[in-house]
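This entry is passed on directly below:
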Amino acid sequence: VPFSLLFCLSFLSVQNVSLHQFEEQPVERLFPELQELPSNVLWLDVLSVGGGRRLSAFGCQSGCVGVALVDQSRPEVLRSWRIQQDGPISTVILFPSWTGLELEKERDGERLGDGDSESYSLLVTSTIEMAVVYRDVLTRGLSAPAVLPDSEQCDAVLCALVTDLDFDRQREVVLGTYGQELLCYKYMLPEGGRDLGPGGQFQLLWRRSFQSPLLSINYLDLTGDGLKELVILTLKGLHILQHSLTRTADLVLKRLASRALQSQSQTDIREQPITVQESEGGGDNPCVEQEGATP
């Protein structure tokens, strides 16, 4: 039985809603990627990738890590990858990797289409090894690891989270350990590089110590003010870390000013006059010139 009840319910279907009865379904009927497992699954993550497909990742007590691309309409495994690590796997998290196209569209305020997010990465944490991110698993499988340095120095990693904590549109990796440490990593790029492109590496941004082991991490809006809080559950209680309101307000004002300046610049370009001149030969093909800079 997996270590989370959520995963058990994935294999059950409702037989009688009024009586709350369930019946167990064969694993190959719903999750063909979970057949012939080497040991019990400790963590499972599933992500919809569009086109009626899903990306599934699992980590086993034996150290086996598996990723599979599944056609949900049949269902059928289209591609799969596996790798063996030395110790039990505590967490696997699938998340979209920003590409250059997506980053430019997001910065310009454009809506991303269904076909724009085709790059996904996988975070894997272990009880005895360094945490690692496998980049672009749909293209590279599990052959492009990027390690999180010193993540094994604080005892076993018990929980993890991938989210944007500093509002720079790039995700950070947050780890909670049995050694009572909260670690935050960021993928640092070379000059002119892109999000999880080649040449970069993960670096430890900051760390924070607690009085007991960290069991779970979440990032959600508890106060209802539109600003999320980092919630950490430890063996002895619940801790809530909030953003600095002053720094957040300054960041909002800067981005609003930048967006207003960009909008005004585009408006000025559209309102510039256009002069039409006839060619010397008096032909029908006009030469159109737009004064000012070309948008």
In short: The first strand starts at residue 12 and ends at 16.
